[in-house]
Sequence to fold (119 residues):
Amino acid sequence: MSLANIVQGGWEAVGAGDFDTLVADYLEEMAFIMPGQADVLEGRQAFRSALDGLGEILPPGFEITGLRQIEGEGEVVSIVEWKSDKVAGSQLSVLFKFEGDKIYEERWFVDTEQWKSAF
Fold:
């Protein structure tokens, strides 16, 4: 299975609310980094726990309207088209770094000013 397919499957698991399936593709020692947040989540269990509050950290009415994957050596970038109640349309990107077929780092790149205005 390609790394891009692993990432695509993760997005599908998020959409289905199947967070246990999602985190199975991450190393135990993984890190989740999102701009504008003071804390970095370290460890698969901390990441899994945070997913239970996903609706609270996304802007009201958040919806993914388009998604594509770009695969490089040991990494995948997701280009995410999204909208929310206050933002008619935008894009963000997410970098997934792999060790073998497991993700060890997920890093989000967003326009933090626009993101804040979406709440």
